[in-house]
Specification:
Largest sheet: 2 strands, antiparallel
Distance between the termini: 12 Å
Radius of gyration: 25 Å
CATH topology of one domain: MetI-like fold
CATH architecture of one domain: Orthogonal Bundle
Strand content: under 5%
Helix content: 55-70%
Number of helices: 12
Order of helices and strands: HHEEHHHHHHHHHH
Structural class: mainly alpha
Length: 329
């Protein structure tokens, strides 16, 4: 009962937070000193008519297109957004439906992040377990130094190093992705490996750091000494008791990573020419005239993913460990 009330409360707070952030994004992007619409080239009349149809503009008595007040535009934006109509591209992918372009780009972002998570979970947990079991020995020191390096360095730095070493010096992989056969084909996977490695480095370091810290603490617990005195070997006690208890704080983090696999990497998708939503987001912002239709859809997408991941992580604690009662006084 407590957890049910807690879930409803968290969902309500998530919706409120999401609404506030979306309102702020909409108002701020509308206040930008952007390039006049007349300078965008062809299709200007179609764009203007589309804006009138979505009540973003109206035609005054002189026959001129005039922007409606921002808050009124926001009301109309929400009205059509709930119907799945986010408008059309005005600067990038001009006159193409925003949602259709987003749906075409999404599988590439899902693929690159899914591949990186599949690699990083076993490797990261394995390194953390080795470091905990070999605490204060040379394997622990080597792994700990590597963890600090990979946690401290941004992923786009790995991108430059991976491109130089594996793509230009060794020439094992192409420098950019080949998207001709789709993201889940062998060609797409092979050409995506450099970007996958760059994304996986940070996740591997995070999993290894947390698993080492938790397992080190568990291995020094009293019940581990009791398990050894009952005749269990070190390996048996570690597998049957230590790992299970150490996974309580680590498993929610893994769930959060799975929920957030679609968030992608904005910079890495641009570096490796992966046609995902991350690259689309960067293009919508850096264009001469920011395409606010794409910006609003993608901003809402990323914010919703982040908020959902936080809720899933919090709720999973109570599911994994029955001793935790979320929302109980």
């Amino acid at each position: 009962m407590y957890i049910f009330k807690y879930i409803l409360k968290r969902i309500g707070l998530m919706i409120l937070t999401f609404a506030i952030l979306m309102t702020i994004c909409f108002v701020l992007v509308k206040l930008l000193p952007t390039t006049p619409l007349e300078q965008l080239g062809k299709d200007v009349e179609l764009i203007l008519r589309r804006r009138v149809a979505l009540h973003q503009m109206y035609i005054n008595e002189a026959g001129e297109y005039v922007a409606t007040p921002i808050l009124e535009q926001y009301v109309y934006f929400l009205y059509y957004a709930f119907q799945g109509d986010f408008g059309v591209g005005e600067t990038i992918y001009r006159m193409q439906n925003v949602w259709d372009v987003f749906a075409q780009k999404l599988p590439y972002t899902v693929a690159v992040n899914l591949y990186s998570i599949i690699i990083s979970i076993p490797v990261g947990l394995g390194l953390g377990i080795i470091a905990a079991i070999k605490k204060n020995k040379w394997p622990d020191h080597v792994i700990s130094v590597g963890i600090m390096v990979f946690v401290s360095v941004p992923s786009f730095i790995y991108g430059f190093l991976v491109q130089y070493l594996f793509c230009f010096v060794l020439q094992w992989f192409p420098a950019t992705m080949d998207a001709t056969q789709g993201p889940f084909s062998w060609v797409g996977f092979y050409s995506m490996i450099p970007a996958v490695l760059c994304l996986a480095f940070g996740s591997i370091a995070g999993f290894a750091r947390y698993s080492r810290a938790e397992l080190t603490e568990v291995l020094t617990s009293d019940y581990m000494l009791l398990a050894r005195t009952k005749g269990l070997t070190r390996g048996q006690a570690t597998l049957r008791h230590a790992l299970r208890n150490a996974m309580v704080p680590i498993f929610p983090m893994i769930l959060g990573e799975f929920v957030a696999i679609m968030s992608g990497s904005l910079i890495l998708e641009q570096m490796f020419s992966i046609p995902g939503v991350g690259q689309l987001y960067v293009q919508s912002i850096t264009a001469t005239y920011p395409d606010y239709n794409f910006f609003m859809l993608l901003s809402g997408f990323y914010m919703l993913l982040g908020l959902t991941a936080n809720i899933v992580i919090d709720i999973s604690y109570g599911i994994i460990d029955p001793r935790i009662r979320m929302g109980a006084k």
